[in-house]
Amino acid sequence: MKAPLTMARGFSLPELLTVTAIAAVLLGVAVPDLAALLRAQQLRAATNDLFGAIGLARAQAIARNEQVIVLPRDAGGADWRQGWTVFADRDGDGLPGPGDDILAVHEALAAGFGADFSFTSPAAPYYIAYNGAGRSCSTSGAARWGTLSLFHGGAVRRIKINMLGRARACNPARDTNCDGAEAPG
Q: Which neighbouring-strand residues pair with 68?
C-alpha cells in the first residue's frame, strides 16, 4: 500500500515577486530617513567632541593653573571645520608650538559641515581660552564669552560659553535661550 502523495508547500513566483516589490518600496521610503539620521548623528558627535575638548581645556587650565586654549587647526585660526587643537599655552603666543603641551587634537569634520563663531572678540583667530581659575578669557586675560554654532544637513547645534567659562550644548529646535548665528543658506 502506497502513501498518498502530498503537494509540496512553498511560495509561487507571483507571491515572491509581490513580496519583493513591497520590500523594495519600503526600503526606498526608508533610505532618505536613514541619510537624515546619519547627518543628525554626525552633528551630535561633532558637537560632543568639541564640547568635550572645551571641557578638557577648562579642567586642564584649573589643574595646571595656566592658560589652556582650544584653537581651530586651519592656518588662520578661523575654520572649526578643519578640526581643533587643545594645548597649554606655555609661551603665551596663542599658537601651539614646541614649548607647549598638546593635550588633544581633533581631525577635520566630515564634508557638509558649517561653523560660525560669535564671541565678545569677533576677530580671528577664533580660539577658546581658559585661565587658571577656569574662566573663559582672551589671550590677554580679559573675559571672553559667546557661542560656537555647528551646522549639518539643515540642523544646528550650539555650544554657549558664559562669562564664568561654563559651557553648555544646546539645540535651538528644542531648547530655550539657544540663540546664535543662522544656518548658512
A: 88, 130
Q: pLDDT tens digits for 6-57?
A: 666 778 888 889 999 998 888 787 666 778 888 889 999 999 999 999 999 9
Q: Rounded distance, CA 143 to CA 126, Å?
A: 14
Rounded CA-CA distance 71/53 in Å is: 10
Asked if 47 and 153 touch (Cβ cutoff 8 Å), the reply is no
Residue 6's pLDDT is: 67
CA distance 183 to 115: 9
143: DSSP letter: B
pTM (two decimals): 0.81
Report residue 155 CA to chain centroid gap. 11
- Cα separation, 119 vs 65, in Å, equals 23
Report the candidate in 135, 110, 138, 109 with the shortest Cα–Cα distance to residue 126: 138
- Compute CA distances 130 → 25, 34, 95, 153, 169, whole Å: 53, 39, 14, 31, 18
The predicted-structure confidence for 103-123, as pLDDT tens digits, reads as follows 999 999 999 999 998 888 777
* 57's grid cell: 581645556
